[in-house]
Amino acid sequence: PPELRILNNCSPSQLEGLCSFLQLSVCPEPVLVRFCGWLLALTPSLSYTSAAILAEQLFLRRVLSLTQPPSRHLMAALTSFCSKYSQPFCSVLVAAVLQEPGKGAEQTKLVCELVEECLEPQCVQLVLRQVLEMPLSEKLLPVVQAMLGRQEVLPPELLDLLVLTLCRQAPAFATSLDYAKLVTAMLSVYQSQVS
């Protein structure tokens, strides 16, 4: 709808107010899918800041409150939004999910699925940087594993940081099967660069 062009003309605080007024954070999921479809067609595209605000308003509460796998509507909305605005999406939503201490398996599975199927290569690297800035935990190992599954070419400094992090954390994961799988995957995917 032409009315959506207003999203390009709002200041960040106006956009937050508009999202609140429209109750986008709690709108029904089928409406969310339709809204994300409209965002894909919006020209010109949203600015980084506007897309980041919308990522937070549309998805953050929903994703952090997941206690079971996301519905197909929510997944469709996430992948739709992510296909065009993956960088602000990762900066806002993925970072919040990874940093949330008490969040469980559903959030981690969702991030893994997005990494495996939706994110552009530079966003996969962004997520890996976000993971490596935190203390490595059992919760984060599957996310790194999903990234390695993409077999993306990593910049040398990021690969070095990954190797260094895994080496430093080895004693803490002495009995972890996920850690062993991760190291094995890394050695097979990047065997020519890891000595």
UniProtKB/TrEMBL annotation:
<dbReference type="GO" id="GO:0036297">
    <property type="term" value="P:interstrand cross-link repair"/>
</dbReference>
<feature type="domain" description="Fanconi Anaemia group E protein C-terminal">
    <location>
        <begin position="1"/>
        <end position="194"/>
    </location>
</feature>
<dbReference type="InterPro" id="IPR039685">
    <property type="entry name" value="FANCE"/>
</dbReference>
<protein>
    <submittedName>
        <fullName>FANCE protein</fullName>
    </submittedName>
</protein>
<dbReference type="InterPro" id="IPR021025">
    <property type="entry name" value="Fanconi_anaemia_gr_E_prot_C"/>
</dbReference>
<dbReference type="GO" id="GO:0043240">
    <property type="term" value="C:Fanconi anaemia nuclear complex"/>
</dbReference>
<dbReference type="Pfam" id="PF11510">
    <property type="entry name" value="FA_FANCE"/>
</dbReference>
